[in-house]
Inverse folding.
């Protein structure tokens, strides 16, 4: 399965290029779209007492007219409701003319229990809040709790941001075409879509390649080619060495969670870097994870020169302040070629420590040959480091992550149920397999460790972050209710086994 996501502008360009290339014209694409939706309605809802098809004036409405005609021809009791008239000479006007069903005005909408609604009012192209008759239709259908099949996107959901624009249908099934849109995956739009089916209407992959989208759904197909597989003759240091900075004696658990996750993800060696006063606490809980005393900058330099760790994790349980900033900048000051440090995953306290010194961090990450910086903020931490971006209501979560990544010279994992992973070169991925069981203390510490472990094994930073987010969510999903952060490293095992033995695309 291809992983590209298309913005509404890119989807319009895909339509244009497909029509230019032929053999289908715009009406032919509309016919294909209507056929796909009608077939799914017949297959999924054979017992519907009646189908109410709600058509807007644009191309989404044109798809709806095709659906209404095909369902009626198949013997379904169809009632057609129209909001406005399609523009004369448009493909939607041709579809409306080919549909001989009586058109009732949408403001008069009524329905009965047991019926099904096909939403073809606006789809993904809506750019302003639903008002008037369209909003009234949403209110009526919602109040009756009728099942809705949406064409392209539930009307009222932004295709680019997933934002609910005033009001929106809540679909049980959404049928979209060519590629998904960001609004299918970003919240709250994702919750309004129900099941999402991607239908082939004849827009070839070469058309999408010509557009060259920079946004993707975070699925294994996006990064599996870079997923590490140890060679037969590999030894532990060939598989990478991850070091995790620990907090003081009362805050050591988070670092150990990160360290264990790095080991589970395949890093050949993992070391917890502990202050002297926490060595005994950490030693009591570690077996395969190594332990080293690190109290000062000199200790960091000695570690890098002596043990040459590939990656670092700093932040989980570490504490906020000068020490976190100094250690972070010491790692980023190393050159990849000379020092062998591939990257730093900065999380939690590490991020917050730069609240008043963000530019210093960003400059260090932007230095030529600096180790890769991956930051994993949740919403609050994101706002502390990127206050102006976070407060810009005109930006979607996707756009915010992109701007932050470019400013920070880093890969940003903007966490949440709809985590967005963005690179400074403009690439971005939206994660779609997040589950509520991951909303538990320590879950983010595990994620930081997974990413660092993958990065240590040679995955590029963006791909390592994407893979880490997906694996973390998949492990949580498979474990289900009752999940604690301590469960996640072991829950990763069947996910990793599937990825290495039977790659999921």
């Amino acid at each position: 399965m291809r992983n590209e996501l298309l913005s509404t502008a890119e989807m319009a360009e895909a339509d244009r290029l497909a029509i230019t290339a032929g053999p289908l014209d715009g009406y032919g694409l509309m016919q294909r779209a209507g056929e796909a939706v009608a077939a799914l309605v017949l297959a999924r809802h054979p017992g519907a007492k009646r189908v109410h098809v709600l058509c807007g004036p644009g191309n989404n409405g044109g798809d709806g007219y095709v659906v209404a005609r095909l369902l009626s021809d198949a013997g379904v009791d169809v009632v057609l409701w129209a909001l406005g008239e399609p523009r004369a000479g448009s493909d939607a006007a041709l579809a409306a003319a080919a549909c001989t069903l009586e058109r009732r005005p949408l403001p008069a909408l009524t329905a009965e229990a047991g019926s099904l609604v096909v939403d073809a009012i606006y789809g993904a192209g809506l750019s302003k809040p639903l008002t008037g008759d369209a909003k009234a239709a949403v209110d009526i259908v919602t109040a009756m709790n009728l099942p809705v099949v949406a064409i392209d996107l539930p009307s009222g959901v932004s295709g680019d941001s997933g934002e609910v624009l005033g009001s929106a249908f809540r679909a049980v099934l959404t049928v979209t075409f060519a590629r998904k849109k960001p609004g299918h995956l970003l919240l709250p739009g994702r919750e309004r879509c129900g099941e999402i089916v991607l239908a082939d209407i004849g827009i070839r992959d070469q058309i999408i390649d010509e557009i060259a989208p920079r946004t993707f759904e975070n699925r294994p197909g996006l990064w599996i080619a870079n997923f590490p597989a140890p060679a037969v003759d590999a030894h532990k240091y060939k598989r990478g060495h991850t070091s995790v900075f620990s907090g003081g004696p009362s805050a050591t658990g988070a670092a150990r969670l990160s360290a264990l996750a790095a080991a589970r993800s395949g890093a050949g060696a993992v070391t917890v870097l502990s202050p002297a006063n926490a060595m005994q606490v950490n030693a009591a809980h570690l077996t395969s994870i190594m332990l080293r005393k690190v109290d000062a900058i000199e200790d960091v330099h000695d570690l890098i020169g002596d043990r040459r760790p590939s990656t670092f994790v700093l932040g989980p349980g570490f504490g906020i302040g000068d020490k976190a900033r100094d250690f972070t900048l010491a790692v980023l000051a190393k050159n990849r070629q000379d020092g062998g440090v591939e990257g730093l995953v900065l999380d939690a306290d590490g991020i917050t420590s730069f609240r008043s010194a963000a530019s210093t961090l960003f400059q260090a990450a932007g230095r030529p040959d600096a180790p890769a910086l991956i930051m994993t903020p949740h919403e609050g931490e994101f706002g502390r480091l990127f206050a102006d971006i976070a407060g810009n209501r005109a930006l979607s979560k996707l756009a915010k992550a992109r701007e932050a990544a470019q400013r920070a010279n880093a890969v940003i994992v903007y966490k949440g149920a709809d985590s967005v992973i963005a690179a400074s070169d403009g690439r971005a991925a939206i994660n779609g397999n997040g589950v509520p069981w991951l909303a538990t203390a320590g879950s983010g510490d595990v994620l930081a460790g997974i990413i660092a472990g993958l990065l240590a094994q040679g995955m590029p930073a963006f791909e390592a972050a994407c893979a880490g987010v997906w694996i973390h969510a998949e492990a949580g999903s498979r474990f289900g209710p009752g999940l604690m952060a301590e469960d996640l490293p072991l829950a990763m095992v069947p996910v990793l086994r599937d990825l290495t033995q039977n790659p999921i695309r």
